[in-house]
Amino acid sequence: MSERPLIVGVGGLTSEVGKTTLLCDLLRMVPGWEAIKTTRGHYRSCGKDAHTCCVSHLLEDKAVIRSGREETYARNKDTGRYWEAGAKNVHWVIATDDQLADGIRDAIGRVKTHGVFVEGNSFSEFMKPHFFIMVARADQPKIKATARKVLGTVSAFYVSDETKPGGNDDLQELSRKLKLKDVPQFAPVFSSGEVAELAACIKQLECEIFV
To answer: Domain spanning 6-209: which CATH class is it, in words?
Structure first.
């Protein structure tokens, strides 16, 4: 049996591509799992106005981890959506860039179930997931630096644009536009109509690890 939970990362080539929606869909299809949300904050010294940094007032000398419904449920927020999708538990990591590695490790250490979904790209720099999904949209030909760093570790791509169901063709077009040289050639591509198939891959991995 695995000594740590099965970790499935859900990252995005850029913002607003549907990471949270996919993660919630997977929580519904892979019942009994937990979820982790990471939020990177900045102290006033970063040059940003402390009043406009949404978590600046929550930062401490080390990463802050909130767990359980009482500490993490907020309607219409990502963590609230996780609970509504059926998460067994939700952990929220609030940290600066320097604190994120320890925060992720501590949050993973709190997981009691077989598996956990972690939203974001950066965490995979510190803890290698068993399976990493990169979410993209055909109409968003952009890529964040954090996404480019982890392209070589992607297990599967998910093209979330519901108006263009041709996932593989869309990804190839995005790869051409963005000059993505590090995209794994044999990573499967799932379209918006194939979430069940993606969930089946995760369930199969869960069966292989926890036997």
So the answer is: alpha beta
